[in-house]
Amino acid sequence: MDYRAQIVKTAFYSRAFLVVLQYISNHAISDHKADAFRYISTHNSTDFSIMEHLLGGFVRWDAQYFMHIAKFGYTYENTLAFFPLYPVVVGFLGESVVELIGQWYIDSVLILIFIIANIYLFQKAALALYDLTTFALNNCEIAYQSARLFCFNPASVFFVAPYTETLFSYLTFLGMLRALQFFKKYSDPNKVFAKKDLLGLVPIALSTATRSNGLLNICFLLYTFICWYKVSREIWVWQRKSRYFTAAKLVCVMLTSTIFCLLPFLFFQMYSYAKFCKTFPVESLPAEVLQQAKDNEWILPGQHAKYNQSWCNNLVPLAYNYVQKHYWNVGFMQYYEWKQWPNFVLAAPMLGIITFSCLRHIWLHLIKEHKLQIFTLADTKDYYCNKKRHMNVTVFYVHALFLALYSMFFVHIQVSTRLIAAASPVFYWVCSRQFTRWKVRALSPLAERCLMFYFAFYFIVGTVSFCNFFPWT
Questions:
Q1: Nearest-CA neighbor of 184 among 145, 219, 132?
Q2: Residue 190: C-alpha distances to residues 28, 185, 187, 196 (Å)
Q3: Which of 39, 88, 263, 302 has the smallest number of CB atoms closer than 10 Å to its CB?
Q4: What is the pTM (predicted TM-score) of this model?
Q5: Exposed e or buried b per residue across 220-248, where buried means at least 16 C-beta atoms within 10 angstroms of its C-beta
Q6: Mean pLDDT of successive 10-residue segments in the chain (473 residues)?
């Protein structure tokens, strides 16, 4: 079987199904009157009315922010919570198109570019997950099942709507794969370093301009370098000069790589500071943007003298944490209120699966064997199939566990489903084993049905809820 071709087909057909489901649910059910941000649309465009009729169900919740940024840029301080790579690139493409066909079509063009880009990037993300899993677990069957589950993941609607989940998952899976390939290649002392291999840093660097948790991908890269150094040290242990040279070279490569990957994030923070921590006239903004800011008392660029935002005065002025806390009340256990219990229920399956699976893996691979060696990617036996060996993937489980714990205590809890679904392959690895012959253990038929129901329910009900402005974010 040509697994890659099947994955591309499954990815496309699952996206097509979501588009149809969005259309039906958006017109069969009345929208919930949500107290949410709405971007300024161009209503007197007949073409936009058609596009709103066909795809309007995807422009909900945070998608409204991405449409606004793509259309107007960062005009309000609260928009700084959304990183620039995706909306700015789409906005640039949209402006290029409307230069040819007319400004009135900007909304239609932006929606089309967002949706088409997500459908294309989702296929690339599914293939990247397949390649990553094949390389890390040495098991094509689990890789294929993981990619198929990715196509029907519980946060699927966010991988079609104008959100960053699809782009981020592609960059993350590809960045992880490139890091593992780098380690595998240069674990051989006979390999000569090639500058072109540094291109593997690009996906990780771009991920830091896509979502804030892209910074975690840099930690994965540094982990790979440390593992490579341990292997190199063992190889060159008999030559002191070579050992010191290897250590010095590693430090230089790590520093250079970290700075390179941080640059997009740092540039955005510098841009935010220049935009909202300085004082200058704002008359150049469209009248409708100025009016919306006035109606909602939002902070416009160049108004620092008026509002004197506290984050601008910090030693390291980072806008993201301030905006999240000030506008969305994001902070340690800030979401722990009785009225939020439905959102905790929504997040429980993802957090339960990840937490249990990661703790179990860490117990088996680090504690039970009394190794406590996390800085290694050397081949190890597969606990679920003793005949197979693959790379030590404990770091992936530690990464996933961190995401789960961070989601439990520091973010709006319902976001955890899409956050983990877009940032970690572990969820798909764990679930895929239940649908292959390499099972963790024999689950009861009821447990397997519950897992299948979880995917199907969130895939369908999540889409219907999202498209009608019901809380499913």
A1: 132
A2: 64, 10, 9, 17
A3: 263
A4: 0.93
A5: bbebbbebbbbbbeeebeeeeeebeebee
A6: 92 97 94 88 65 91 96 96 96 92 84 97 98 92 94 97 98 95 78 74 96 93 85 60 68 88 96 94 87 93 93 92 91 86 93 94 75 65 52 89 95 93 96 67 70 94 94 76
Residues in the chain: 473
